[in-house]
């Protein structure tokens, strides 16, 4: 884990930020994060990369953020070191430094309907400009959303680990076992659902566009953060991660209507996405989430930096999956109607 002293030394030696006060931020999975207060009231955000991190890919992720920012997407601005680096790779610490963005995510409470509309507009713009990114052309693809055979093997492995006993408490272990056995039984239904999905548009996307990575200020999107390297993924999958965010689904508001608002705003900014992709987004989320072993694998393998937080997320994600499955037909009918109304 990153050492505070090594991070402070890199900030002073390479970024000219001496005497900063570092405060650890309890967020992030792949990095240890800090807020640093510098001279004259300046505040920056620091990401310290874990040993073994692929820093070439991390640099590519930062460059994708810059690509989006240069085309009008609100992002956090990366600060270059005095050597011109977007990511400093030192002997004691590998870090990137960012302008601090004042804002909050909907990570704890989910998104309101007005926030879903705001994020739909920004993500539509983001996907439109990323559709011409040189790393990968936009194209229709089938069979790339998830691998159910691989999912089945992972399920079996995690269930074996749970049966042997882990560092997890016994109550959570019993609950996780019950949930993963339910997921095993769900796999044939997911296979049928995947067969009926249309060919989904694939292109370069953000790569980790979940609610924690969208910051809001005064009801508007202040920044989209934590891009991943530029790789092609299904656009519907990325849209669905926001529209079916677990805590948004569970917050008590009508998430179906909220998803419709997100989709309407998205289409205004990105009308070139085929209608079928938006209609299929909820089904795509069910298939991907139902086949995903995260975060159970991180928990049993003891890779989680914040295990208690991940346990809460595992519970929320499962309850949301059950809720979305129950309203899948309704949600798709609403999206079909939206597409039809928009066409007229």
UniProtKB/TrEMBL annotation:
Signal peptide: none annotated. It comes from Phytohabitans houttuyneae. This is Aminoglycoside phosphotransferase domain-containing protein. Residues 23-227 form the Aminoglycoside phosphotransferase domain. InterPro entries: Aminoglycoside_PTrfase, Kinase-like_dom_sf, Pseudomonas-type_ThrB. GO terms for molecular function: amino acid kinase activity. It comes from the Bacteria. Belongs to the pseudomonas-type ThrB family.
């Amino acid at each position: 884990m990153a050492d505070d002293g090594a991070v402070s030394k890199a900030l002073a030696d390479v970024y000219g930020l001496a005497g900063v006060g570092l405060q650890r931020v309890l967020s992030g999975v792949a990095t240890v994060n800090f807020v640093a207060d510098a001279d004259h009231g300046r505040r920056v955000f620091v990401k310290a990369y874990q040993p073994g991190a692929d820093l070439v890919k991390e640099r590519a992720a930062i460059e994708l953020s810059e690509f989006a920012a240069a085309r009008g997407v609100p992002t956090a601005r990366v600060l270059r070191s005095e050597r011109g680096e977007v990511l400093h790779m030192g002997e004691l610490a590998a870090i990137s430094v960012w302008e601090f963005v004042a804002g909050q995510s909907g990570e704890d409470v989910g998104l309101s309907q007005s926030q879903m509309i705001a994020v739909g507009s920004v993500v539509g713009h983001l996907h439109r400009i990323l559709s011409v990114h040189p790393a990968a052309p936009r194209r229709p693809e089938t069979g790339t959303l998830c691998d159910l055979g691989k999912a089945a093997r992972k399920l079996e492995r995690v269930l074996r680990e749970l049966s042997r006993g882990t560092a997890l408490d016994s109550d959570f272990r019993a609950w996780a076992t019950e949930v993963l056995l339910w997921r095993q039984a769900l796999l044939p239904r997911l296979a049928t659902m995947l067969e009926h999905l249309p060919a989904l548009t694939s292109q370069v996307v953000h790569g980790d566009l979940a609610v924690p990575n969208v910051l809001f200020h005064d009801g508007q999107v202040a920044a989209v953060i934590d891009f991943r390297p530029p790789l092609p993924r299904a656009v519907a999958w990325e849209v669905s991660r926001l529209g079916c965010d677990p805590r948004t689904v569970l917050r008590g508001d009508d998430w179906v209507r909220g998803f419709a608002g997100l989709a309407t705003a998205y289409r205004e900014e990105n009308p070139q996405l085929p209608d079928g992709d938006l209609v299929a987004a909820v089904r795509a989320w069910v298939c991907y989430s139902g086949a995903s072993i995260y975060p159970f694998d991180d928990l049993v393998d003891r890779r989680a930096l914040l295990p208690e937080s991940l346990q809460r997320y595992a519970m929320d994600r499962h309850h949301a999956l059950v809720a979305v499955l129950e309203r899948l037909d309704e949600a798709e009918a609403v999206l079909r109607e939206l597409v039809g109304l928009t066409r007229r």
